[in-house]
Amino acid sequence: MRLFFAVLPPPEVRNGIAAAAIHLSMDAKSALVRPDNYHMTLAFVGEVPAAQLATVREIGASQRTCSFTVRFDAYEYWPEAAILVAAAREIPSTLTRLWERIHAGLASHQLARKPELLRPHVTIARKVLQAPVLQAMSAFGWKAQTFNLMQSIRGGVEPTYTVLNTWPLLDESARP
Fold it and tell me: Which residues of 49-68 are buried (b: 16+ CB within 10 A; e: fewer)?
């Protein structure tokens, strides 16, 4: 099973991203990501044997972090991955804590390596082979109140993502 932890946008945010994406100028070979695939990855776990799924679920269930709002305020082209993203230049401390705790849990079970840098983003387009002329972005806020364990199933033009579990983030007034 190919797994990752992610935050999914509420419908109004997903619709706003999709509306903005259709106005971006990209080369003809670029492929816009389907709106139902928009997400912000917290931790990419990768291939996990079905026998370890319970452990990954336990890592998710053990998280006690407050909800947070991420402000996506810039388009970025990442040539190494050939993607165009909406990025957040400022990272809420509660997001950083959740990211660190999930990675610590995964590392304690030798399940995933922690990347050097947290880069909150939403992938808007894939197969972007030429740097597009990036216009100014109308910033949008996204309040994360839950996070998910997702399964990625490859096949076809774009992977299919399935939610395996959803966990609530704490109300901000209940800071741990």
Answer: eeeebeebeebbeebebbbb
